[in-house]
Specification:
8-stranded parallel β-barrel, 13 strands, two-stranded antiparallel ribbon, FMN, TIM Barrel, about 40% helix, LLM class flavin-dependent oxidoreductase, globular, alpha/beta, NTA_MOA, Diverse_substr_monoxygenases, oxidoreductase
Length: about 450
């Protein structure tokens, strides 16, 4: 038994699919994604399982890079639906009492004051459970919904994001913790000496401040980030409390873990206060054969390859519609996008061969093969997770459901009790805020 505790995050989309493009077609999947009760039910399931956080990913456009059209995204249900997360999080907060609640907001298409106020408000209304996933946004479809033709270049996006975080954190800090007085007799509501204009002026933003929301229960909401490039890892080392990764195997994950922890220390922060969590999925069955058959259905029966390529085109900002499914992946294609090259290497390692086709890339995107896949009986899945956790490859996992709500219900019912019995996962919440759950200072 160890004192080190595994962190678990439930990965969600406020729409019709999970990260798996065929999830809506699975026979037992619920299709209540336009109902608040749907999200509240899933969050309560994860809270029952003691998860640190339920987190909602987001994009600010329908996938429209494939074929330069949204038609296939709409036709095959490849994430055409993305609800506004502020409303969804408000409902989830009202339906739960302990689990952390997080959302993606872009530093490219929002403004610092808006984001600072949104997450400070959510932190107060939840009693200290809010988290912000910081993204720079990745494709032209999003840019075109905000009056631009193309998204910013890689380094420009991170320059802007760095300045954005400086402004947001300054706004969160603009109220000192004891600024509120609320003395009815004297009539003093708050101490003006403890509420500060920030007068932030940078290349991208000018913000006077102060924030219109007092200091939050966590001091600052928790920050999540998933940068994997060198620049992304540096950004995460400086700012993130939770870092999401997507490594194809345990050895690569160990190298990434060591590298990221060194970068955190070099940034002057305590590496033990930052959690590194690979995204994974678990397929649990009463027997190994049942679990493997369930995964076969996920891989083969319910995913349309064009739906996968639609999502892949969105993520890589590259139009796969110009290729046939059985076209080989060529050097020219790889040269068109560094993201395609990284994807190709991940699929090549997984399949053990070099002669890949576009269909192979589609299957890869459909099934989240870039992260660990835990398939088997509850004991086997728990053992696979322990191998990563105990082997210094991660501090826990971001679990993405193959279908909803069943994947999370099965994991909570069958795997969580084993992790609890082994002493690596909480049997109950001992604190009230997300920072309490993660062991982070206020």
């Amino acid at each position: 038994m160890t004192n080190r505790q595994m962190s678990l995050v439930g990965f969600m989309q406020a729409g019709n699919v999970t990260v798996y493009s065929g999830s809506w077609r699975y026979p037992s999947a619920e299709l209540g994604f336009l109902s608040l009760d749907y999200y509240a039910k899933i969050a309560r399931t994860l809270e029952e399982g003691g998860f640190d956080l339920v987190f909602f990913d987001d994009r600010l456009a329908m996938p429209g890079v494939y074929g330069n059209s949204v038609a296939d995204a709409v036709r095959y249900g490849a994430r055409p639906v993305k609800l506004d997360l502020t409303a969804v999080l408000g409902g989830v907060i009202g339906a739960t009492s302990r689990i952390g609640v997080g959302a993606t907001y872009s530093t490219t298409y929002y403004d610092p004051f808006h984001v600072a106020r949104t997450f400070a408000t959510l932190d107060h209304l939840s009693g200290g459970r809010a988290a912000w996933n910081v993204v720079t946004s990745v494709n032209d479809s999003e840019a075109q919904n905000f009056g631009l033709e193309k998204h910013l270049g890689h380094d420009e996006r991170y320059d802007r994001a760095h300045e954005f975080l400086e402004a947001v954190t300054a706004l969160w800090d603009s109220w000192e913790p004891d600024a509120l007085v609320m003395d009815r007799e004297s009539g003093i509501f708050a101490d003006p000496e403890k509420v500060h204009e920030i007068d932030f002026a940078g290349k991208w933003f000018k913000v006077r401040g102060p924030l219109t929301v007092p200091r939050t229960p966590q001091g600052r909401p928790v920050l999540l980030q998933a940068g994997s490039s060198g620049r992304g890892r540096e950004f995460a080392a400086e700012w993130a409390d939770l870092i999401f990764t997507g490594d194809p195997g345990i050895e690569v994950a160990r190298q990434h873990y060591r590298d990221q922890k060194k970068r955190i220390a070099a940034a002057g922060r305590d590496p033990d206060t930052v959690k590194i969590l690979p995204m994974a999925y678990a397929v649990v069955g009463e027997t190994q054969a049942i679990a493997e058959e369930k995964e076969r259905l996920f891989l083969d029966a319910y995913v349309h390859p064009v739906a996968s390529l639609t999502l892949l085109s969105e993520v890589l900002n590259y139009d796969f519609g110009r290729h046939g499914l059985d076209d080989p992946v060529t050097p020219a294609m790889l040269d068109a996008s560094s993201g395609i090259r990284g994807l190709f290497e991940g699929v090549r390692r997984h399949l053990g061969r070099d002669d890949l086709t576009v269909r192979d890339l589609a299957a890869h995107r459909a099934t989240l093969l870039q992260g660990p896949r835990f398939v088997g009986t509850p004991d086997r899945v728990a053992g696979q997770m322990r191998e990563w956790f105990d082997g210094e490859a991660c501090d826990g996992f971001v679990l993405a459901a193959t279908h909803l709500p069943g994947a999370f219900e099965e994991f909570v019912r069958m795997v969580v009790p084993i992790l609890r019995e082994q002493g690596v996962f909480r049997s109950e919440y001992t604190g009230h805020t997300l920072r309490d759950h993660l062991g982070l200072p206020k």
